[in-house]
């Protein structure tokens, strides 16, 4: 190192939101003698990485993709001596990878300082996302439909986690998602998850779902339980659409201490639990979709997770997919795909399920959009 590093967090907080990669690269060149630096952001499918400092395009660095998937730093040979890959993640949200070429392998103290740089950059990018289009633009390899733009902007993120749990979610087709959506919120020891399937097509379905999501958020942020959240959203949708359109929704509230799950099943999303080598569907009493009738009332059902359990929720675009009118994915391919995720973290499991769904369609265009959400409860 040429001199002692100044706090990179202070530098980033004083930087314009669209200049975070350049300031980070200069910091690494000055204080760590970095030969080359690249900030790679994950695209919407989490299958590609796009550079922010080099020319726009897709980066083919396989080691960087492994770092994104594993969320562990990687060290190997590079053009200048050593190439280091560091995950860019914030509260479990996988944003991308910081790639640094150094003249020599870093010692433990330098490695820890570099990890801190990556962490500070991830938090800064997450905070800057609402104030610049630079990072969103790099995420997209093609133009989103208007419905997809609305849905992606409404998401809470694509992953979340701490020492108690890991949570991942994915929407597909990423650039043409319509009424399917997921939402979550963490408050002390309570984790709320909702998966929705808004009726209709295109922007109409997206607007329906946006109304339901924001109504549930409004209730939740005032301290309401999932019954009140469902009832407020149902009333809002019925007032707007008169029962002509509705949103099939599964609401879950998980006690991260005891493992108890409160559930309101208001439609088509299905819930499964993986325990040991077995995967079983959670049988819930299906209640009315949100917005179907005015002043609808909902009831909570309960089941319990055990430490190490995996909870999976899929929309009907997953379990009911039936290209060509044959057997559904839920009947013939879903559980095979789920078993293939057994050794994967929740953030990778959602991608494996969606990959299985794409293979099931065998190149045919899906008739419906799809959501998969996966929670690993560690306790």
UniProtKB/TrEMBL annotation:
SUPFAM superfamilies: PP2C-like (SSF81606)
Highest rank taxon of the organism: Bacteria
Alphabetic keyword roster: Hydrolase
PPM-type phosphatase domain segment(s): 162-377
Database matches in Pfam families: SpoIIE (PF07228)
Protein name, UniProt field: Phosphatase
